[in-house]
Amino acid sequence: MENKRIHDLEEIKGFVFDIQHYAIHDGPGIRTTVFLSGCPLKCLWCQNPESQELYPQLFFSYDKCTGCGKCISVCTQNAISQNGSVVQTDRNLCKICGKCVTICPNEARTIIGKEITAGEVLNEVSSDKMFYQESNGGVTLSGGEVLVQHEFSCAILELCKNENIHTAIETSGYGSWETLKNVLTFTDLVLFDFKHFDDSEHIKFTGVSNETILENAKKIYHELKIPIVARLPIIPDCNDSIMNIKQTANFISTMLDKLIKVHLLPYNNLGEQKHKNLEQSWNGFSGTIPSDKKMNEITKILESYGLSVKIGG
Ligand code: SF4
Ligand code: SF4
Questions:
Q1: Which of 93, 213, 267, 299 could bond 79 through an S-S bridge, CB–CB 3.0 to 4.6 Å?
Q2: 240-269 in b/e burial notation, b at 16+ Cβ within 10 A?
Q3: What is the pTM for the complete model shown?
Q4: Which domains are seen in the chain, by residue range?
C-alpha cells in the first residue's frame, strides 16, 4: 500500500470503549478485540450498555463512593447532587469534562470511551503480533456495532491486512449492504449474531427488524464467500424456545451451510449492574442464567440439523 494511503487511513478517527488483549473467545487463536462505540439495536438483555452511545460516558461505581462531595465542588455544570449519602449525576447537564474523575479520591468515577485514530489502534494491536503468529489469531472488531462507524472500521481493518494480521468482525448484521460490503473488503471472518428468527419477536427484543439481517447473512456467505461463525445469545424466555432454536438451525443449515460453526453464548446479567453505573433507568428486563441442561438441550437440537456447536465463544 502506498505511503499516502496508509497515512490517510491512520488519521481516520473514531470512538472506542475498550481494547482487550489476549482474547480467546472472539475468533480463532489469541486475539485483540477492539470494541467500537455506537449501536442501532437496543437489545433488552444488552450486556454492554456502555456500548450503545457513540460518545464517551461517565461511569459511576457508587459502591466506591464515600459521599465526600469533592466531585460536586469541581463540577462547573452543577451536574452532581447529593442527597444524604446518595450522590447522583444529571446526565443531561454533564459535559464529560473529567474534572470529577480526576478529583475523586476513591476512583469511583471513570470515563468510558475515547476518540482515537485508526493508526493508534493499529499501534496497540500490533504489539501482540507475535501471539497472533503463534496461535493463528488476529484482531477482532466488536462493539457496539462495527457498522455504525464503518469508515473507521474499514480503516482499522485495511491497516491490519496491510500488516498481514488476520481480521474478524462481530456484527448484528444490521446495516445497508453497501456499508457491510465495504467493511468486509478487509475482513477474513464474520462472527454473526442471530438474536431471534421471528421478525416480530426480533423487533420486540432488539428494536429492529431482522429482514435485512438475514438477507445480509446470506449475501456474506454466498456472494462474498466469507466464512461465518453463527453466534446465538441464549436468553431464557426470550429466544430459547424449541421453536426458535429449530427455525434458526433450519435457516443456518439450509440458507447458509451445514458447515457453519455455531457458538452459543449463555446470558449473563452484567448489563444490569452497568445500567446502574451509567445511572440509566433500567428497562425492567430480568434475565436468568440458562441451566446446563437447557444449553445441552439447545446443543442437541442444533446438532440434529448437522451443525457443529460449541458453548461459549
Ligand atoms: S464529567 Fe465534568 S461535567 Fe460531568 S459530572 Fe463530572 S465534573 Fe461535572
Ligand atoms: S469525589 Fe468520589 S467519593 Fe467523593 S462524593 Fe464524588 S464520587 Fe463520591
A1: 93
A2: beeebbeebbebbbeebeeebebbbbbbee
A3: 0.94
A4: 3-54+118-311 (3.20.20.70), 59-112 (3.30.70.20)
